[in-house]
Design a protein that fits this description.
This protein is α+β, with helices and mostly antiparallel strands. The protein is 18% helix and 19% strand. The protein folds into two domains: 87 residues, Ubiquitin-like (UB roll), CATH 3.10.20; 140 residues, Alpha-Beta Plaits, CATH 3.30.70. The N and C termini lie far apart (44 Å). The structure holds iron/sulfur cluster (2 copies) and FE2/S2 (inorganic) cluster (FES).
Length: 256
């Protein structure tokens, strides 16, 4: 069986016996949790929310945004580790609210906002944006970055239905992973390196995914927007109701 303390580049939950549990200490509280799951999920189950951007429970973790850093005690003392990427292990001691964690969260948000346009008043994500919410809850309150921000043409059309505003992208890779892993249509990816990195479709191609709407929806910020909804409404003006999809005979539950 794979050693659960060894994390490969693309972390996957280690194989464990069905029903096996481990005991960890979370913010001073001992909890029993299913062996093999990632720390972020175990904490959530125990009522402790760890902030995140790139993590999605149904996609393989990539540990890209670093928003979920927590202190995990190990042989070399407590170190900051991404909770979405580290599986729980017997006896693990985890702290999610220390000064060190808080400082890391401040730093990650300050970095994420270095090149972020902060055009919330004209951004379709405004009012339902995890970046807004987490900046308020975990951010430093102000930035030391006074230099010129990076600029991209905005927005560009990936298709008739999907627009991309690269300035707002936080490079979480959720759209990339969704397109490749879930939709099976790897049409969007990261191009270039360093501060010129951008998410985009491949040169000369359009984003023709059947799951375009879902790809837009999985973006945690206003980088991907759907042309039919653009500037159409604000989330606080809308009501959400459960309904039944009528597109095929399955009749799946949907939220309208
Ligand atoms: S993505 Fe969020 S933080 Fe960025 S401009 Fe839009 S609403 Fe504001
Ligand atoms: S476009 Fe959205 S989902 Fe894709 S990497 Fe950027 S922020 Fe993440
Ligand atoms: S949520 Fe863990 S690194 Fe992004």
């Amino acid at each position: 069986m794979a050693d659960p303390t060894v994390v490969s580049h693309h972390a996957t939950a280690p194989r464990v016996e069905p029903g096996a549990t481990v005991t960890i200490t979370l913010d001073g509280r001992r909890i029993d949790t299913a062996a093999g799951q990632f720390l972020i999920a175990a904490a959530e189950e125990a009522g402790v929310y760890i902030p995140r951007f790139c993590y999605h429970p149904r996609m393989a973790p990539v540990g890209m945004c670093r928003m979920c850093l927590v202190e995990v005690s190990g042989p070399r003392g407590a170190t900051l580790q991404p909770a979405c990427y580290v599986p729980v292990a017997e006896g693990m001691e985890v702290v999610t609210t220390s000064d060190k964690v808080r400082k890391a969260q401040n730093g990650v948000l300050e970095f994420l906002l270095v090149n972020h346009p902060l055009d919330c008043p004209v951004c379709d994500k405004g009012g339902e944006c995890p970046l807004q919410d987490q900046t308020l809850a975990y951010g430093p309150g102000e930035s030391r970055f006074v230099e010129e921000k990076r600029h991209w043409a905005k927005p560009i059309a990936l298709s008739d239905l999907v627009l991309l505003d690269r300035e707002r992208c936080i490079q979480c890779g959720r759209c990339v992973r969704f397109a490749a892993e879930i939709a099976g249509e790897p049409q969007i990816d990261f191009l270039a390196r360093g501060d010129t990195v951008e998410v985009n479709v491949f040169s000369g191609h359009r984003f023709t995914s059947y799951f375009s709407g879902n790809t837009v929806q999985i973006c945690p910020v206003g980088a991907l927007t759907a042309t039919p909804y653009r500037f159409a409404a604000r989330p606080w003006d809308l009501d959400q109701v459960e309904s039944t999809c009528t597109t095929c005979a399955f009749g799946c539950r949907v939220a309208v």
